[in-house]
Amino acid sequence: MAQVQRPLIIQSQVIRVCCPRTARRSSALFSRASHGQRLHTKTVTDKDISHLASLPLHPLTLADLVKHGRPPLTTQQLLTSANFTLSILPARLAHRIQSLRNLPFIVVSNPHVSKIHSNYMHSLSTLLPWAEQEIKTLEEEVKFTEVMADLVQTHSNTISILARGFLEARKYISPKDVTRFLDEHLRARIGTRLIAEQHLSLHFSSQPHCEVMHDTDGDSPGYIGVIDTRLKPARIVDHCANVVGEICELKYGVRPTIVINGEPDYEFAHIPVHLEYIITELLKNAFRATVESSMEREPIEVTIAPLPELLPEEEDTGSMNSEEIRNKKIDNEDQGNVDMASQRFTGNNSPTSPTAELNILPLKHSTPGVTIRIRDRGGGISPDNLGHIWDYSFTTFNDQQASSTLSGGSHSANGMDALNGFSGAGGDGVNSLAGLGYGLPLGRAYAEYFGGGIAVQSLWGWGTDVYLSLRGVGRVENVEEAKQRRQR
Q1: H or E element, residue 198
Q2: N or C, which terminus of the chain has less Cβ within 10 Å?
């Protein structure tokens, strides 16, 4: 069995973790890891990729991520989490490899795109030794968690590397095809990274014989891995507004005020780093438009409105019958699992695999969630630009703009300014994408991944309303109780 030298291994000493809010905190833990260790690998063959890529993928729900229980997990719960992670990651990696290979050869030959392909091949090679076995001991779980840490680190800069690859290859692939491919690929990547990070967080907070710090104060959020079960959207909005406001003041010399109304004390279960990224992107646009329209005296209004917990008979189900309602799941297309974009280059427009009908909890419409409206008086979006706000706008670059961006300049498409240089996508490397126009489409991908969405209403000459809707995981206690009832 081959071995490969990798720089990132989890330390064997006790790690104490309290409320891991973002992937950056996990990275801080990884930085203490010892060097010089080796991960077991297995050569990845075309047959392996073909077989794994033929396996059906299922949509991931927040309920899947919390179903193993609240940390600290028992030994059996931790092993179950590891085996659940192992059961779904190899196929997802193989789908990404096959998707990249379906691109035109001259595009895949670009060194940046080729680098991403090599990273996925490496990660799959570290998972294959585990693929045909069950993780049965804590020693095996520790070694498997090292593989997860390596996976997260290996793919930490995927977005920025892909962006530069497609910039360089823009002559050989149409902007529309680039947008379709990136939207699908980056959505799929959200799930892959999240699955790995969730098990890492559960591992760090559940090591046996370890006195783990946990929040018992009623005012402190309770985490299950990377999910905050008591997430306050108002707190996230306030934090993001302060950071974006400081950058806005640095750039323009002024900053708009922000008013939070609705129900600022509302809590629900979601992933803080996802919400931070989305809110940051939306506030960047609102702040910039407000200042550039000289309307900074008009406050930006943020309204937080909890989504009602509807009973099944109260839900707006349209023409669906009762069985369709009961079996409704998150759409695989929203999570980038259908591989339709890359199939366009092979002449096959059918998905590479059917959706799976596995024992995965659907996201109920009655799941508690929130709608956040961000209203500004920044003059609105011009009709010419409104139809392109969800495009990866770098695809419209001319040669001068592309050259400036690749060399580190701030030249950008669609009037994007220096505020684009700031993002908080949880270690995704988006902060290095100044001027590439990734903010809104990637923000929408995060919102839609678990059944939410973003809607924009613009009054040209007046202002813009943006509606962000997110579905939560429900009351976590109910999820755990349901699991216990099934076990009985």
Answers
A1: helix 175-204
A2: C
